[in-house]
Write a structure and sequence with these properties.
This protein has 20 helices and 23 strands. The strands form five sheets. Strands 1, 3, 4, 17, 18, 21 and 22 form a seven-stranded mixed beta sheet that branches. Helices cover 38% and strands 18% of the residues. The N and C termini lie far apart (64 Å).
Length: 614
């Protein structure tokens, strides 16, 4: 009743105003309507609603969502919140799980799998080109040498060129992907875009199975409508591959992970169970000790790498043939000579992340931040940084230790004594400045157009003929005048930091951000703002995991890992900002078909399978 009375009073008041000022009232009404339409266009119109087709949502519900929506809406708001809490407990309080799934079609899933495989192959071809010393990409104009040097130096990985060979390039690859607006020429073909590239130590790979199991357990009604591939098949494929590769080196496969005291969540424990269930030994490596007293542990000698573990009566020593590293590979052996720059830079960044020190030691923190800023060529004065850390910041960096991790482990890899997935020297591939050149790599190495291309991305920096880096001042002003249509990113930001989503950003930070860009334009890029697609009032993205092997074979998961966050947030889909995981299912045409295996031998077969032509 109060709402009806309120509406009546509003109408009565409007009639009185119209009677006194008819023209003025009509103008105000028109302005109000236009403003409302504009606001809705910016905040809602461009989002792709995963659950609905174009048209009337009530009459045009996508068939693959219909049964799930009916079941989910049978729960009250309180019950839905309780379901989220159950998922939170299932994930050992790492992250909440949205109790409503994202469902991809078979066609969408196949495009994603082939697109990730294609891009992974192109990145591997680029890495082989670089680590072989041929560098044909420079003569071909794929990426300027000055840019690549700056990127590699920024990550402290320039020393690995001495050690890495093309045969070492087995690595995990899982790019972050969003849906793109439809192609007007081919509106029926799903469109996706790569947002970021992720290699080696990648989050989410240990959560694929749990996300599906938790959803089915907590909402049993979903089960009879799910004909999605089993995530376990991806783990089976990886484990089978590791056993085969280990046999070639005359040993067993081992997975290495961080100890619990170092990990940020419980995903490592999930990875441990996943691979132990498949017969693969799992060993913890602590990068802050020499690991000589741990059981089980890894040891090295001139013959290779050995697993030391307890037997029934005595200590057993087993030859290791292959290692899969679910950790930053530099932490295998932090004191390896080629790790020096990386180790010092990492120690400094870790020190800055300690908020207690940051508050108590403002001057010291300020100086450390200054020392971490690269020069125009991307170089950090590593000697000065190390001296400052040892003298002024001795609390927690272990820079004085001579042996950390597993001594000799990386050299055993380089000398062909053991195989390895995720070698060192790949961190720079994840740099957002390198990202801008990956589409070119696909076209150059594979002679194909990208199946999943980049978002429109540019740098604030420009190279002059003498190699000098200058600010694209006019372009910067254009971006900030139209900031709601752009996303600005720091090229080496991690976990959603150094990202400013134009429509969502606090405009008061613009003067400070512009100053930072002016000081070093090469450290910032800007991307065309693409509204993320939505599921149950949450914006979502996905990550599809794969392994790119040195033999040119690719193992791609049939199931993607997904994140979701309320559309009312800052526009970044980040678990550390109250984000949630979301179960991603794939609806196949044939419920009983076995769709798990994607094992591709080379680029030509990959592109033939998808029927993709330039």
């Amino acid at each position: 009743m109060p709402k009806i009375v309120g509406a009546y009073k509003t109408i009565k008041h409007f009639a009185w105003v119209y009677e006194k000022h008819p023209v003025k009232t009509i103008i105000i009404l028109l302005i109000s309507l236009l403003t409302s339409v504009g606001a809705n266009a910016q905040t809602e119109e461009n989002h792709y609603f995963e659950e609905y087709k174009k048209g009337n949502p009530e009459n045009d519900l996508k068939k693959r969502y219909k049964n799930f929506r009916q079941i989910y809406d049978s729960y009250s708001p309180e019950e839905k919140l309780a379901l989220e809490k159950k998922g939170f407990i299932d994930f050992q309080k790492d992250n909440a799980l949205l109790p409503f799934p994202r469902i991809l079609s078979q066609e969408e899933a196949e495009i994603l799998q082939k697109g990730v495989a294609q891009r992974g192959l192109a990145l591997q071809a680029f890495l082989k080109d670089y680590y072989s010393g041929k560098n044909t990409f420079i003569k071909a104009g794929i990426i300027p040498k000055e840019v690549l040097d700056r990127i590699i130096q920024r990550h402290g990985e320039e020393e690995w060129i001495t050690f890495i060979r093309p045969q070492h390039l087995n690595f995990w690859y899982g790019p972050d992907i969003i849906r793109a607006p439809p192609d007007l020429k081919n509106p029926k073909i799903p469109q996706f875009r790569i947002v970021e590239d992720n290699t080696d130590f990648i989050g989410g790979i240990g959560d694929l199975e749990l996300a599906k199991e938790s959803l089915q357990k907590n909402i049993p009604g979903y089960q009879k409508y799910i004909n999605s591939p089993d995530p376990k098949k991806y783990y089976d494929e990886l484990a089978e591959s590791y056993f085969k590769r280990a046999k070639k080196y005359g040993g067993i496969p081992v997975m290495v992970i961080y100890p619990d005291k170092i990990t940020a969540d419980n995903e490592d424990n999930r990875m441990k169970k996943i691979f132990e269930d498949r017969g693969i030994k799992v060993v913890e490596i602590d990068p802050y000790t020499n690991n000589t007293r741990k059981i089980p542990r890894l040891e090295t000698d001139k013959e290779g790498v050995w697993l030391i573990e307890k037997g029934k009566k005595n200590i057993k020593r087993i030859k290791v043939g292959y290692i899969a590293g679910n950790m930053n590979v530099q932490d295998f052996e932090p004191t390896h000579p080629a790790n020096r720059r990386y180790r010092i830079i990492s120690a400094a960044r870790e020190a800055l992340e300690n908020k207690e020190f940051a508050k108590e030691e403002l001057q010291r923190t300020k100086k450390l931040k200054e020392l971490l800023i690269p020069d125009k060529n991307g170089k950090i004065d590593i000697d000065l940084l190390e001296k400052f850390m040892i003298e002024k910041w001795p609390e927690d960096h272990f820079l004085n230790r001579k042996k950390l991790g597993i001594s000799g482990l990386l050299d055993a890899v380089f000398n062909g004594k053991v195989g390895l997935t995720n070698p060192p020297g790949l961190q720079f591939v994840n740099d957002k400045e390198l990202y801008m050149y990956v589409d070119r790599m696909v076209e150059y190495y594979l002679k194909q157009k990208p199946i999943i291309p980049n978002i429109q991305t540019e740098s604030f920096a420009e190279f002059l003929t003498d190699g000098k880096v200058v600010l694209r001042k006019k372009r910067m002003e254009e971006v900030f005048l139209d900031i709601d249509h752009w996303v600005i990113k720091g090229v080496d930001g991690r976990g959603g930091d150094a990202v400013w989503v134009g429509p969502k950003m606090d405009k008061s930070v613009i003067p400070v951000l512009k100053k930072r860009i002016e000081q070093d334009p090469s450290r910032f890029i800007f991307q065309r703002y693409t509204p993320l697609s939505m599921v149950d009032n949450h914006i979502v993205d996905l990550r599809l995991h794969s392994e790119i092997t040195a033999k040119g074979k690719i193992i791609v998961s049939k199931i993607a890992w997904g994140r979701a966050i309320s559309k009312a947030g800052d526009g970044k889909v980040n678990l550390s900002a109250n984000g949630k995981e979301i179960t991603i299912l794939v609806k196949y045409h044939n419920r009983n078909c076995d769709m798990h295996r994607v094992y591709i031998t080379n680029a030509n077969k990959l592109l033939d399978e998808i029927g993709y032509s330039p």
